[in-house]
Amino acid sequence: MIEAIQNWFAPPRHLILLVIALWFGWWLAERIVKREGKVHEAAFSNLTFYGLLAFVIGGRVLYALDNLAVFSLSPLSIFSPNPQLFDPFFAGTAAIVTMLVYGQRAKLPFWQTLDALTPLLAALMLGLGAAHLAEGSAFGRETSLPWGIAVDGVTRHPSQVYETVFAFFILNLIGTRGPLPHAGAQFLTFLAWTSAARLFLEAFRGDSVLIFGSLRLGQILAWAVLAVAFLALNRLQSKEQLAN
Amino acid sequence: MQSKQRIFFAAILALGLVWIFLSADQDGASTNGLIPAPRAGFLAPDFTLETMDGDTVKLSDLRGQAVIVNLWATWCPPCKAEMPALQKVYEEYKARGLVVLAVNSTAQDDPQAIPAFIAEYGLTFPVLLDTNNEAGRLYELRSLPSTFFIGRDGIIYEVVIGGPMAEALLRTRVEEILK
Questions:
Q1: Check: complex ipTM more than 0.90
Q2: Which domains does chain B have, with CATH numbers?
Q3: What CA–CA distance (Å, rounded) separates A75 from A86?
Q4: Taking CB atoms and an 8 Å limit, are A10 and B26 in contact across chains?
Q5: Would you call B20 and A220 a contact, using CB atoms and an 8 Å cutoff?
Q6: Which regions of chain A does DSSP assign to beta strands (E)?
Q7: CA of B53, closest CA in chain A: separation in Å?
């Protein structure tokens, strides 16, 4: 099964999985927005569209600016179909800034909009896990457990499968339950679940970036995000109680 | 209710900290780069192949130099499309220690078409013949072209499957592996 996925979606086709996840997440988010009616439908649709546009264009343009010396030697490379000429961090930043600006101009309520975006983010996490599996990246550490998978002659934890399964459960949790009482709770719960999953699953990875000798950077960052999500959830509820 | 939740959150965070220390990588399991595999972060699998002139090239002998291993075939359109960029970048960077190994997937190519291909594109870097698909097997060749950017330490920095690669892509990666 894993081998079949890796053959069908061998790089660069693994990116198709991300596109499918994006499309599904978008569809799911719009459906929930329509059902709950907390955010203006057309404005939400525009927000996601502009965000996506900024992600694609920003990721390439900012990458080119970051490597200006190289791109000045072959300026037409900016139109190259090579997905490697792209910076996901810059892309994400461009998308967030664009969505913040548009959201403010369209007077979209901040927390309700984040809640509405949550199914899209959850679907993307699922797509990311599947893309890792197809690409063979984010691989696991060596194991002798019976469900280990052979990677380059070594039996390893199927860390990408763990990642995909957890993402699926989180998406299922987000997509199937009704609206939560506090605005922002949906997004913060997703953030807490996702960071907790990363904190747990990073331990099975074989490609962790280590700091202080043996600590996994991914876990430390996930712990920090989890703490922020808990604090924000707690604050949200305190505010709500005060208001009542 | 809220104080119970606070305790729950604090307990989860405390457990998280314990887990971070329990699952710390004491045995160096995350320190890849020592195991040969055709993936980024791993040691580039070693091979010994012959050039068109019958000279032998062993990849591990090039340790200390930045290496691009490009697997290609004469019949493959994206391989043809990226050869001029590969040659151009090789000319620019060879003085700084860049080596390009163009590994022809001879097991699935016509060996007689190779000299004409080299002449047509004016290739000056070594063209190696993978007659028995040794490199193809070691590098788990799935599609042509496949390019491996290998650092001076012999570790694969990036793998680019498919093509053609833009000049900017080649230059940015070469700058990285030359560091």
A1: no
A2: 30-178 (3.40.30.10)
A3: 15
A4: no
A5: yes
A6: 149-151, 154-156, 210-211, 215-216
A7: 33
